[in-house]
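Input structure tokens:
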């Protein structure tokens, strides 16, 4: 089964950092953009960040701009999300997914993404 596997979540204090990883199972990260989403309890899933397969194009939600950095390592076939200055409101399950159609970051519409993983829990609390 083709899917993306997220890892790296955990419990961290406010102001702390985590690095999430997103690796594919059964395919390579070519041709289509990869995005990170998150879903907090009782809230809708939201797009957090996105990167093209070459890494030349990135995008961030306003809520994480300046604190999160997305990157891709094509040699390791992995996308990373470096999260700094974490806040309690960043608490959520984080998912990655691959765009079905585009190698650019102009939409976070969930049904235009595929190969969703199980997610990784990020909890920011003192």
């Amino acid at each position: 089964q083709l899917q993306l596997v997220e890892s790296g979540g955990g419990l961290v204090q406010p102001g702390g950092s985590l690095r999430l990883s997103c690796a594919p199972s059964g395919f390579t990260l070519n041709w289509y953009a990869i995005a990170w989403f998150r879903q907090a309890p009782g809230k809708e899933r939201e797009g957090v960040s996105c990167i093209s397969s070459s890494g030349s194009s990135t995008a961030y939600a306003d809520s994480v701009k300046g604190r999160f950095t997305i990157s891709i390592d094509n040699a390791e076939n992995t996308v990373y999300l470096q999260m700094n200055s974490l806040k309690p409101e960043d608490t959520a399950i984080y998912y990655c997914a691959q765009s079905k159609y585009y190698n650019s970051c102009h939409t976070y519409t969930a049904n235009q993404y595929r190969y969703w993983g199980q997610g990784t829990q990020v909890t920011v609390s003192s």
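The first strand starts at residue 3 and ends at 7. The chain is about 0% helix and 45% strand.
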